Amino acid sequence: MSPPLAVESQVQALTELYNSIQNARHYPRDLLKTAIVPNPLPLTPPSLSLYSQQLKDIAFTFRSDAVQSALRAAQESERADGQNIMNHVRRENRKRRRPPSPESPQPYTVIERQSSSFFPVTRDDLTPLKSSELIEYIRQFNKEHSSYKLGIWQGTRSFVKAVKNPAILRFTIKDVLTAYLTVSYTVNDLALLVESVTAFGPRERRLPHSQSEYSVYRMLSQELGRMIHSDPQVGLQKFMTLLCSYENMFTARCDKCQRVLCVEGHVAAVERVWNESNDQWEPRHVSC
Ligand SMILES: [Zn+2]
């Protein structure tokens, strides 16, 4: 059994690695491609060399003794008692842009053990929707929201009577986005949980499990994934309030910098933060 201090530094090493890998998901896709093909295209504009260095830093961190021994310890620990393992990596950690250099030790960041949900707890805490109630819910939802459309997706047919498990829902906001939600339930608990979401441009014709060709929708998919990750038990109704808040995705001002597009990267505000004082989701840039 490792002493607590050693465990703390192992957790920190893995958290930082996880964060830097998450961060790398924002890198230009072409760069990641050329990093794995044997004869990379000659692409070295100065802006890309920064990403290249960061990728090398990640690889370096991955191979470091600290990370390797932490991974071994984690594996042993899981083997000894793998119950109740939950991932509670906080997003404050994720905001860090670069992995720390080995010679500059970082303060240990406390990892929150309680609820880290980004969803409101004060409102909309209805009984989670059961699969048998889904079709009626969709009918009601479409009646109440004329600018949105929700349906069960199944290949070419857009609406079916029977609910599969897992089921894929297709949600559209006219001229703004199309999102595919994978929802499922278990035999012990018939409540529908949102497992994953992929967002696309309104005119993209792609399969639910692929990804958008536009970076803003890929960022949105990641953002929605992060939200689910914060609260894997979130019910469908509550999740839909989040999705509906993207109606003004391309015109909403960020609640931090008050700009529509962020200075860094000129991207719309794809992050949402729940504001308890006015009971709504506030837009924010990922970089703010
Ligand atoms: Zn901003």
Automatic annotation (TrEMBL):
GO cellular component, as recorded: mediator complex
Entry-linked InterPro entries: Mediator_Med27
Pfam families assigned: Med27
Statement: the UniProt record of this protein carries the keyword Membrane: no
Places the protein is found: Nucleus
Superkingdom of the organism of origin: Eukaryota
Coiled coil regions in record: none
Major localization listed first in the record, in broad terms: nucleus
UniProt entry tagged with the keyword Transcription: yes
Chain residue ranges for the region called Disordered: 75-108
GO molecular function: transcription coactivator activity
PANTHER family: 34 KDA TRANSCRIPTIONAL CO-ACTIVATOR-RELATED, MEDIATOR OF RNA POLYMERASE II TRANSCRIPTION SUBUNIT 27
Name this protein carries in UniProt: Mediator of RNA polymerase II transcription subunit 27
Organism name: Lentinula detonsa
